[in-house]
Amino acid sequence: MKRMLSGIKPTGKLTLGNYIGAIRQFVTYQDEYEMFVFIANMHAITVPENPSELKKNTKDLIALYIACGLDPEKVTLFLQSDVHEHAELGWMLTCHTYMGELQRMTQYKDKVAKGETSLTAGLFTYPSLMAADILLYDADYVPVGVDQKQHVELTRDLAERFNHRYGETFVVPTPVVAKVGAKVYSLSDPTKKMSKSENDDKSTIYLLDDPKAARKKIMSAVTDSVGIIQYDPENQPGLANLLTIHSCLSGESIESIVSRYEGKGYGELKKEIGDTVEKFLTDLQARYKEIVASGICEKVLADGKEKAQAIAFKKVRKVKKKLGFQLFN
Ligand code: ATP
Ligand code: LTN
After folding, report:
1. pLDDT tens digits along 279-296
2. Where along the chain do its domains lie?
3. Which of 115, 161, 307, 319 is the most buried (most CB within 10 A)?
4. Tens of pLDDT along 60-81?
């Protein structure tokens, strides 16, 4: 069975973008692949984090993973900081990553372009840590939203570079980006990504939003003045975004939704999408509450840690040997 791995940072509250672009894919693939899903808490501290908020977000994330449909019997769910090999291999790969490669990363360049100050060295080098997350487990596939594809491509380059210098060590992974929903956009500015760190309540639907309030956000989402229901992301990005959200949550294809709404108005369509989102969140939150009350998260993480550690330990031992760290046999 081929392996698949991915992770999400426990920064801020999870959004519908995280669900549609990432978690939904993990759930779909869990039967087909040997799946590893982790909480990237070491990535969370690349920006200033409040420890008690980090704790709360981490607990929410594990419960939400399960509530969204990840089955701990099938998937290895674990906390990144529980497996110290991530930091170890992260450093070894940082020493094989060129400054120029990191400087070319779009996410980093965007932050610099925005004039953000106090960027940490950790934020700059985080793609090397992300490469370690993936290469430790010999992952064949990495499902991500489109914004993360470039980091998986850097991971491929690092794996190939290392294999070339030291002999076959790492599996070269392939990014998997959903055909529909790889980038969900802000409801108030559909040219921007729906982001959990944006802190703009109207533009983002959080998975733990009050379902009725989320419905209202859909109703007041920015559209356009064209007035025709069709899928045209370039000229009608707001409408295209709503159609994408609807299709991903309901399973109905965009073409089918568009043809049902031929000749009708945006208001009517928004109502249907609002209902879909409200129902989706209501059901999800009921499962989330059950999971939190059951107290299973601690056990799930303990089991995941054990499985992940065993694999990561072997990989780091192999890498140390290749690098000349192991002195005696
Ligand atoms: P931030 O907003 O702080 O940059 P994020 O919402 O991108 O964070 P991550 O932990 O970086 O959250 O992302 C987890 C996964 O969710 C990644 O695979 C990412 O590509 C995906 N993702 C995040 N936002 C969206 C979105 N708006 N549309 C599609 N996928 C998304
Ligand atoms: N960098 C990613 C989260 C992440 C990840 C990973 C995703 C960290 N390590 C390994 C896939 C595989 C992010 O910021 N969204």
Report:
1. 999 999 999 999 999 999
2. 3-177+295-323, 201-289
3. 319
4. 999 999 999 999 999 999 999 9
Catalytic residue among 9, 13, 196, 217: 196
196 is known as an active-site residue: yes
Domain 201-289 in this protein, CATH class:
mainly alpha
Return the CATH fold of 3-177+295-323. Rossmann fold (3.40.50)
Task: Report d(CA 157, CA 168) in Å as an integer.
Answer: 14
Q: Which of 15, 151, 155 to mutate to test the pocket of ligand 2 (most atoms within 8 A of CB)?
A: 151
CA dist 227 and 209 (Å) reads 29
**Backbone φ/ψ region at 118: left (φ over 0), alpha (ψ -120 to 50), beta:** left
CA of 25 to the centre of ligand 1 (A): 13
| Ligand of minimum distance to the alpha carbon of 129 | 2
